[in-house]
Amino acid sequence: MMAKVATVITKLFEDVEFTSPKEALVAAGHEVITIGFNAGEIIEGKKGQARVTIEKAIDEVNPADFDALLIPGGYSPDQLRKDDRFLDFTRHFALHQKPIFSICHGPQLLVNAGVLSGRNITAVKQVAIDVKNAGANFFDEAVVIDPTGLISSRTPEDLPAFNAAIVNALK
Questions:
Q1: Does position 1 have pLDDT exceeding 90, yes or no?
Q2: Which of 81, 115, 162, 171 has minimal CB crowding within 10 Å?
Q3: Which of 8, 35, 104, 123 is catalytic?
Q4: pLDDT tens digit string along 87-115?
Q5: What are phi and psi of 170, to 5 degrees?
Q6: What angle do CA 85, 74, 7 make, to 5 degrees?
């Protein structure tokens, strides 16, 4: 069954933390939709290696129309977490225990959405204290899979394991 995966993203995302999971998901037959501030906006990764066109504005989408959520890292999650529309969108996936795929700085959005209490997670080292303070159980491992469907990873080095886990979760 093909899943429809929402990706919340804005400028200065970590290039490979979007492109690699997207490629893995698309290769497995899933659809990946980019959601940002403005539809049609072209954003660039922080390393300048990836350019992405935002397919849907946050005001145009309903989280109920998606099966899973991908949150790439970089500076994108920090910019998104100040906007209540992205926090509400994210909360929907957590409250309905739909798969959430978060890597590197991605958990910053989950922290501000207030959905980490009691969940198992990993993140890049500098975000570890934030997820702990949000009530999560932090593990310094390549991939952490919480029973609620939250799958997290630390850095681009973990992408092979992360990609395998997220593709497997949608089988």
A1: no
A2: 171
A3: 104
A4: 999 999 999 999 999 999 999 999 999 99
A5: -95, 5
A6: 45
Burial 103-121 (b: 16+ CB within 10 A, else e): bbbbbbbbbbbebbeebbb
Q: Please indicate whether residue 53 is annotated as part of the active site.
A: no
Asked whether 104 and 124 are in contact (CB, 8 A), the reply is yes
Let me know if 80 is exposed, middle or buried by CB neighbors in 10 A (0-12, 13-18, 19+). buried
pLDDT of residue 63: 98
Looking up tokens 């949000």 gives 134
Q: List b or e across 25-45, with b for residues whose CB sees 16 or more CB atoms inside 10 angstroms.
A: beeeebebebbbbebeeebeb
User: Which of 167, 112, 113 lies closest to 145 in space, CA to CA?
Assistant: 167
pLDDT digits (tens, 9 = 90+) for 119-167: 999 999 999 999 999 999 999 999 999 999 999 999 999 999 999 999 9
The per-residue pLDDT for 159 is 98
Mean pLDDT for 62-71 is: 98
Token pair 């492109």 in the structure block, residue: 19
Question: Hunting for tokens 């290769």 — which residue is that?
Answer: 27
Cβ neighbours of residue 23 under 8 Å, at least 6 residues apart?
none
Q: Are 31 and 6 contacting, i.e. CB atoms less than 8 angstroms apart?
A: no
Q: Residue 139 in 3-state DSSP?
A: coil
